[in-house]
Amino acid sequence: MPLWHVYHPPGTYDPGQKKQLSTDITGFYTRFGLPRFYVVVIFHEVAADSFHVGGQPHGAAVRVVVEHIARHTEDPDLRRRTREALAALLAPHTTDRGLYCEFHVDETPRNLWMIDGLTPPPEQSETEKLWARENRPLPY
Q: Is the pTM of this model over 0.85?
């Protein structure tokens, strides 16, 4: 499961822009076989006077916290490519619009995760592929 928290000033994203960003994020992960329902994006509006960068209020900043749970990597080159791909994914929704943007990725241990009371199936397993086709968790 990737869980994205997008912190932004009020009015930064209208409903259509939120939908497009969440669709782009979901598409990134489904390319690697993750079920669509694994991808969760939560938008958090933060008042400009409550969003500070470098000790100063910043009314045009976006901060993204990504939690990777379903997939992890230790390979430095793959981590670099992932970081660059996520920056490219975010750019049309942030920096290309003149917004200051920071993001980071945390990796949560996979064995500390459940969906609807079910332990997710192993990566790339037939059961995970079934979950992706059905777009829902199924007992196994």
A: yes
